[in-house]
Hints:
- The protein has 152 residues and is mainly alpha-helical.
- The chain has helices at residues 11-20, 26-48, 51-76, 79-87, 92-115, 117-120, 126-137, 139-151.
- The protein starts with 10 loop residues before the first helix and ends with a helix.
Amino acid sequence: MQIEEFKPLTREEAQQWRARQPQMSPWRVVRWQFVLLCVAPLVAGLLTQRAAVGWSVFYGGLCIALPSALMAYGVSSSPLSRMVVRLFPGAARLSLAGVFFWEGIKVLLALAMMWSAPRWVPDLSWLGLVAGLVVVLKAYWLGFWLNRTRSL
Length: 152
C-alpha cells in the first residue's frame, strides 16, 4: 500500500473547500434539544400515565440541554469569546482552548445536576432520567442530519 504525499491547500483551494462545507451554529443543536426536552416528557407521561416519569424524563433532558446552552453561549456569545476573536483573529489554538474549557464546564454542570436529581424530582424514576438524557443527546445527530440533508 502506497501512502500519498501530503499536499497543503492553496489559499483559493482552502476557500473553495470552506464554501462547500455546511455551516452549523451550536444554537441550532440547542434549539433541537429544547424541542425534544418539551416533547419527550409529554410522550413519557402519556405512555406511562405517571407524572413522576414525565418529570424524570424532563429533568434528565434538562441535564443535557441546560449545560449545552451554557457551552454554546460561552463558545459563541460570551464577552470572553468575543474579546479573544477581536484580539487574536485567526488564533485557532485559543478557540480550541475555549471549546475545551466550556466542554469541561458543561460536563461538570451535567454531573452536578444528575447528582442532585433525587433532591429536585419527587419520586424520581432513574429509567426516565436516563431516557431523557438519551433522547436529548440525540439532538446532536438530529441537528447534523438535518443540516446535511438541507445542504445537499
